[in-house]
């Protein structure tokens, strides 16, 4: 299997991308195509000096064009036809790669994927799923940013697609919940109430409303919400962890005794950090497109890139898209509401 | 000044309410009316034995009726006309108290406040504000649960009301932001984009879109959002702090070395907990009603109740409602969009 990696994506430049690519090849028998500036990529490879076995499974597709983080996705896709992210998805389209991974501009990655690969038949809106760390298994949330104004049948399809994706975490009959503000049926806004009805009448293992606190408890496997709410949840979690870490760090640095105490308890903190770290969960898969694509956080480090590459391979391997097609075929009714 | 306290509210029964009431009287020269079951209240008072000076400023209004936590607010308000929360707001209506505080059923508290006190003229939708802990001053978020389906002019009014309330934290010209998923103007859902225009054309100190992570940074004073999104933020934060604490606790308890390290660093953790603790921020004020009311978390301990009582007094003292009236008068245009 071959994965295409946008080597120019992310806030850290090609270094983290290529370090992640090398780690992924060291841990698997995958093949990788790095898409980006040949000279910059070669300089990284020279510096990192991977083993011959790794090098033999790496190939480079050169382009000097790339989408900047702040750029308008629509403009970028229209004007930069040879950007690294466009070429990465072009490789998937031509069958020269099985999946594409990018830590670049999320909107442009989404747009490039749809432009190059199109949607799975009957999918109204492709979206972005994300795996949240919990006290037990990760929980898959969808949508986390692609679709900010949604109708009930969009959310219904997110449930089908996210449930198919959750198989990546060895979850057999995923418990599906809808994010609301109160556990009782009937709580929530109009969108939630209408989607609740669709989900309750489906063959999904629907457990009803879940609340923000349930995201981290691990008693639900798939949480459905619109892309606005999902993205807010993502950013609130990140912001809280950052603020909490900063507050603790400050307090610890201001006291010798606390500093020593922290030193003793450090393994516990590192384990905690690993558990809460988005990097451990790879990237966010684009679901509903006719192919496989993963969006990584702009801040992704090498570990996050490595995990995203391995995740992409897993999605292809367990045929998530075939499962989505089957699930859509099994639930044609809500599609009738599309108009 | 006299505050009415729903002595029967909250998950912990009257104990925490009355302990909080006593603390509030010890720290201020307020007067308090406890509304609830006389025998239960007296039993608490006998046990807690407050000083004579405190006792002399306490009075009890007896009722045996109370709203349960799971009860439908609409039914509760209709059927239980003598419930403790209804009588507490009745005291405010009759001018026998200046504000009411309840840690009971939030929906019923909101409904009782509106039923007894009515809305401030020209307010379309009263809502619930909440102060989030940040790295600097608290940030006021509104709405956090009362209005789940909103129109732009509702959010606009939330901004005016929350800005007036933020004076409680000695904030002079509050920076107002709208919660969105991207800092740039034009990012967000339809509701956010339309509200953005209203806010940008107002005399508020509007700083544009803010993101979930900004909630904890302290670089914005007032964050506006609909009650669905606001409530999700609240619950996500609570859930994450709970999950993080649980994960750390487990790790620490499993290692002698970490346990000793934690012991040394404990003051830092306690300070952190205090900073992140909702109890330190009192309750959530109901804004837009013709009077002053505070909803406390059902889990409120005595400290939270004490802080909510002091907060209610501060709201009355700095005349938040008069400021809301003035602010509404200054911004009549968006009201025209009400239809």
Radius of gyration of chain A: 21 Å
> Main β-sheet of chain A, in a few words?
11 strands, mixed
> Architecture of the largest domain in chain A in CATH?
3-Layer(aba) Sandwich
First-to-last CA distance of chain A: 40 Å
Helix content of chain A: 40-55%
> For the record, what is the CATH homologous superfamily label of the largest domain in chain A?
Isopropylmalate Dehydrogenase
User: Which structural category do the helix and sheet elements of chain A fall into?
Assistant: alpha/beta
Strand order of the largest sheet of chain A: 3-2-1-4-11-10-5-6-9-7-8
Instruction: Specify which chain pair forms the largest interface.
Output: A-B, 58 and 58 residues
List its salient traits:
homodimer; about 350 residues; 11-stranded mixed β-sheet; 12 helices; about 15% strand; phosphate:acyl-[acyl carrier protein] acyltransferase activity (chains A, B)
Please give a quick description of this structure.
Chains A, B: Keywords: Acyltransferase, Cytoplasm, Lipid biosynthesis, Lipid metabolism, Phospholipid biosynthesis, Phospholipid metabolism, Transferase. By secondary structure, the first copy, chain A, is an alpha/beta fold. Chain A contains twelve helices and eleven strands.
Walk me through the structure.
- 2 copies of one chain form a homodimer.
- An 11-stranded mixed beta sheet of chain A has the order 3-2-1-4-11-10-5-6-9-7-8, with helices on both faces.
- In chain A, α1 packs across α11 (302-317), α4 packs across α6 and α9 runs antiparallel to α10.
- The first copy, chain A, has 2 domains: 1-123 and 288-318, Isopropylmalate Dehydrogenase (3-Layer(aba) Sandwich), CATH 3.40.718.10; 124-280, Isopropylmalate Dehydrogenase.
- In chain A, β1, α1 (14-26) and β2 (31-36) form a beta-alpha-beta unit.
- The longest helix of chain A has 27 residues, at 227-253.
- The radius of gyration of chain A is 21 Å and the shape is globular.
- Helix content of chain A is 46%, strand content 15%.
- Chain A has 339 residues and is α/β, with parallel strands linked by helices.
- Chain A has helices at 14-26, 38-48, 52-55, 73-79, 84-93, 106-117, 152-165, 190-200, 227-253, 256-276, 302-317, 320-330; strands at residues 2-6, 31-36, 58-62, 99-102, 127-132, 139-142, 175-179, 205-210, 222-224, 284-287, 293-295.
- Chains A and B meet through α9 and α10 of A and α9 and α10 of B.
- Chains A, B: Keywords: Acyltransferase, Cytoplasm, Lipid biosynthesis, Lipid metabolism, Phospholipid biosynthesis, Phospholipid metabolism, Transferase.
- Chains A, B: Catalyzes the reversible formation of acyl-phosphate (acyl-PO(4)) from acyl-[acyl-carrier-protein] (acyl-ACP). This enzyme utilizes acyl-ACP as fatty acyl donor, but not acyl-CoA.
- Chains A, B: It catalyses: a fatty acyl-[ACP] + phosphate = an acyl phosphate + holo-[ACP].
- Chains A, B: This is Phosphate acyltransferase.
């Amino acid at each position: 299997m071959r994965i295409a990696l946008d080597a120019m994506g992310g806030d850290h430049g090609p270094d983290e991308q290529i370090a992640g690519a090398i780690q992924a090849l060291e841990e698997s028998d995958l093949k990788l195509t790095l898409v980006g500036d040949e000279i910059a990529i070669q300089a990284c490879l020279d510096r990192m000096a991977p083993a011959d076995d790794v090098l033999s499974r790496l190939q480079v597709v050169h382009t000097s064009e790339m989408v900047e983080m702040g750029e308008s996705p629509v403009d970028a896709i229209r004007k930069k036809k040879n950007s690294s992210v466009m070429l990465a998805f072009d490789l998937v389209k031509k069958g020269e790669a099985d999946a594409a991974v990018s830590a670049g501009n999320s909107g442009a990655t989404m747009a490039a994927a749809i432009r190059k690969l199109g949607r799975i038949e009957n999918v109204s809106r492709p979206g972005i799923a994300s795996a949240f760390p919990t006290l037990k298994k990760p929980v898959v949330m969808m949508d986390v940013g692609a679709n900010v104004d949604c109708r009930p049948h969009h959310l219904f399809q997110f449930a089908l697609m996210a449930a198919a994706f959750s198989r990546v975490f060895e979850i057999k009959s995923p418990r599906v919940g809808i994010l609301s503000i109160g556990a009782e049926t009937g709580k929530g806004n109009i969108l939630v109430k209408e989607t609740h009805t669709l989900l309750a009448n489906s063959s999904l293992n629907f457990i009803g409303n879940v609340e923000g606190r349930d995201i981290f408890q691990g008693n639900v496997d798939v949480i459905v919400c619109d892309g606005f709410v999902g993205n807010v949840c993502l950013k609130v979690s990140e912001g809280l962890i950052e603020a909490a870490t900063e507050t603790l760090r400050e307090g610890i640095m201001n006291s010798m005794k606390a500093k020593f105490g922290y030193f003793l308890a450090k393994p516990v903190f590192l384990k905690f950090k690993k558990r809460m770290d988005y990097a451990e969960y790879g990237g966010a898969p684009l679901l509903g497109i006719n192919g496989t694509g993963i969006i990584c956080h702009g801040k992704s480090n090498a570990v996050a890139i490595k995990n995203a590459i391995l995740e992409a391979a897993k999605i292809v391997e367990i045929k998530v898209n075939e499962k989505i097609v089957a699930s859509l075929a099994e639930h044609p009714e809500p599609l009738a509401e599309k108009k």
